[in-house]
## 1
Amino acid sequence: MSTPDLTLHEAAEVLGVHYMTAYRYVRLGLLHATKSGGTWQVAPKDLEVFRSGAVPVEPGTPKRRAPWAARMEARLVAGDATGAWGIVEAALAAGAELNDIYLEVITPAMRSIGARWAAGELEIAVEHRASGIAQRLIGRLGPRFARRGRSRGTVLLGGPVGERHSLPLAMLADLLRGDGWEVSDVGVDLPPESFILAAEDIDDLAAIGVSLSSIESEANAAALCAALRAAMPGVPVVIGGVAVRDAEHAMALGATGFAASADAFAAQLSRVVATPNAGV
Ligand code: B12
């Protein structure tokens, strides 16, 4: 017979800490617990993992880098928005940069959730709930990416008709803002005509970024690239996102350029500013 789960009060007693301290461990994803009938339950094996130090007690302790992404994933899967924000705060307090929170914490957590959903391990409702929490985290973090001073130019970002993955676009927008660009994020599922109107409205348009996460919207992405290039000659139209395999795929979709990541795109944009006719 297996040993029964402990209540969080019992787990706190075993650990010799106050209940609220044990609760904080759960919130930070340090101690795995599940909620049953309104109370937290800790499996003896999870308590052992915690006690063995496999997950460090103090976030950011030297030489034992805290597994922030795994903790974030646990909070997102549990639907625990407060705990997820706690992970963000703990990671920042331990010295993580804002970019790291997006690229090293939230992104791997969301990708893993996507893989687990695709493998049939997680219900779609769990993935949707996790997306909602990620959206709120981005909403709170976004304003911190703002840079003072003159903008380097404006980048227009959006996704084609049918595309529903707005989170990648929102994170990309903040990462570029953090790099000194003004960003106009017109969102996903946008008809080419509206995208073009938004482009025509920008005086200092440096480049257009099209985001494609779902291969189902590939044909619409190609139509969007063609329409943008016809309406905005000379403006680089770069495509990226998890559904774009490589530069060859990007060219086949009619883009003028490809970037495999937000960092790669930022580097390309910097080259445009340094040499205005270089293209992206
Ligand atoms: C959350 C999510 C959803 C949410 C989206 C919520 C939202 N508001 O965004 C919902 C539930 C709506 C959803 C729906 C679907 N989804 Co979904 N989803 C995801 C998931 C789990 C996370 C996406 C995310 O937030 N990633 C985190 C971001 C930051 O990471 P990122 O994509 O790497 O973004 C970075 C870079 O790619 C880059 N980048 C992004 N865009 C661009 C653009 C340019 C120009 C450049 C330079 C760079 C760049 O910069 C970003 C920031 O660093 C992914 C899993 C995954 N691997 O991404 C699946 C995933 C993208 N979804 C998938 C699928 C299959 C679907 C559905 C078809 C499911 C279905 N049967 O209904 C639908 C399709 C909807 C549609 N038509 O678009 C597949 C896509 C496979 C494919 N390539 O076609 C994935 C990969 C899951 C999987 N493992 O199978 N999904």
Note: The first strand starts at residue 6 and ends at 7.
## 2
Amino acid sequence: MKRSEHNKARGAVLWFTGLSGSGKSTLASDIARRLVELGLPVEHLDGDQLRAMFPGTGFSREERDSHARRVGFLSSLLEKYGVFVVTSLISPYSESRRAVRDMCTGFIEIHVSTPLDVCEKRDPKGLYRRARNGEITQFTGVTDPYEAPADPELTIDTSSMSAERAGDMVLAYLAEKGFVPNGR
Ligand SMILES: Nc1ncnc2c1ncn2[C@@H]1O[C@H](COP(=O)(O)OP(=O)(O)OP(=O)(O)O)[C@@H](O)[C@H]1O
Ligand SMILES: [Mg+2]
């Protein structure tokens, strides 16, 4: 069904992509909370939660691609009902993100561009240390590629911007594009 067949509400898909530790989940949770406070229907789909729910999901190029497309498809369904879908997945491949963009109507790609050395210093899950030790393989930024978005709607480097300021920027973008009312 097309969105117009459901209702007139205009949802969006806010797709946070970036390295592990770049701040995707932190920023996505924050913006989801702020959208809820505006009275909007919101769903946050986080990569870690999805992988916990579907433990067979691996880290090969094919599996990462399917993971992103699966989440993209779910997002596109929710979006049709006027839901603001906020996703936080590394989603390292341009081609997968392009496929998701094509599935959605209001796709907003947000590149969390925090540099690798900052992400590695933060290492909130100890994954960089384990990747450097060789305990885990196919780790994005260390032993697996990250293809940075060529033309994202927004770029946020959390090494030089607070989470609160980043949230302000995302909300300002949504207001400017007419997704949420102005004058919050
Ligand atoms: N300005 C900021 N914005 C977001 N996170 C920040 C900022 N400054 C410091 N941090 C910290 O950086 C870390 C980012 O971790 P987070 O789990 O959000 O990353 P992630 O991109 O979701 O990683 P993963 O892909 O492994 O899930 C957190 O510990 C957070 O507190
Ligand atoms: Mg995360």
Note: The domain at 7-176 is CATH 3.40.50.300 (Rossmann fold).
## 3
Amino acid sequence: MAINIDDAGLQALFPEIAEISDDTLRRGVLAIWKEIGAECAWDKFEDVPKNIGSEHGRRLVDHIRGVTVMALSLAETARKLHGTPYNRDHLLAACLLHDVSKPVETEPDPGKKPPNDKVLAARKSALGANIQHAAYATHKIFAHELPLDVAHLVLTHTHASNLRSNTIEASYLFFADYADSDAGVEPTGDVKFAHRIRFVE
Ligand SMILES: [Fe+2]
């Protein structure tokens, strides 16, 4: 199975795609999502859970929107109040692509009951079990010849990466990702990411 979705369908899922001002970058983001749709084992992106842990009952697409909108508000707040500049197109593209590989890192688990009527049960795919999270998303960004900065932001957004970023866009993406994840963990009563994070110098 695969997901057959067009640009209008993706824009409906992720309205912030339209805010990317650079045509090549915006088209690249759309093309990567369409390719992932064609490669994955899901029927629609809405069925894919955010993860197979405590957020297995929420939709990945809602998380990606949450991260994008939260990161933009962090960036805009710092710009307005402190005059901190940032690259809006790169931040938008990186937020929208940071978890684009999750639909191929997982697959539907037909043996398991769906946790609710929002998403299906998932398990790790062979790719997800063998390749570090976000590596495949980064590969797609290179394959589409999108900016190195966007690849860097996507690769470094996760603690699965050995490499950290020192850019302001990475900061907004990183903290928005954890804040939106904790908003998803909150109703489950599980331990939040902010409680678990340990920074080692
Ligand atoms: Fe994420």
Note: The two ends are 45 Å apart (CA to CA).
## 4
Amino acid sequence: MTPSRDTRAGLFLDRDGTIIADAGFLSDPAGVVLLAGAKEALHRALRSHRLYLFSNQSGIGRGYYTLAQALAVNARMEALLALPPPGFSAVCLAPEAPEAPAVYRKPSPRFIRECIEKDGLDPARCWMVGDRLSDLQAGVNAGIRAALVRNPDHFSEEVRLFCQTHGLPAFDSLAQAVAAVL
Ligand SMILES: [Mg+2]
């Protein structure tokens, strides 16, 4: 079923507001809702790309919920996505609070760079897709391509200008982004 997967191509995905509805500091697996078309888009993307989940979860650093709760939310999302193996090649939940020194927290490119190194990815064939400025910045900082999934809650003049300056495409959904860029 997957003869054409390019093991050097990677799709780095934001979670909240990109794959699942952004409920704001989601800590209850029962609150996980896939966005329309996201499941089908990731099944399609997995046929040609390695998938990586890259999510800022400052709710951990802020003490709103635990890493275990954040992982339970992820597990629920993965159950709903029902991706065939290998599913996500790696998952990064960056736990830092915004005011704490950033290690993995986007816009840090550290997770992307580590995956490129570890899995031998070709940066020219990697994308970071997300709904916030920090997603786009992480991709640009890592030297890969980046695309915006427009979220009315986070779309701003700053985001528009960043896309314009860096020539980044913008889409209304993950499904549209995957259809266009992969
Ligand atoms: Mg997001």
Note: Residues 16 and 24 are 8 Å apart (CA to CA).
